[in-house]
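Let us work through a complete example step by step.
Step 1: write down the sequence.
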Amino acid sequence: MRPVTPGTRGSASLPLASRIQRLAICWILGTKRDETRQRRLIMLITESASGQRISAVSGKAE
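Step 2: predict the structure and record it as tokens.
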């Protein structure tokens, strides 16, 4: 892994876990309705707690 240096733009320099975290945050907070945010957060917590791949963030349905 390369360290993130100041002034570097884009996610190409971020480790994979950081990119997935950023995608998950944007996926949850990118909604207009609070109900949708809560539903997505519950889905994210449930899938990650059970060890499943987070389908909405990874883009791969299981």
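Step 3: interpret the result. The chain has a mean pLDDT of 77.
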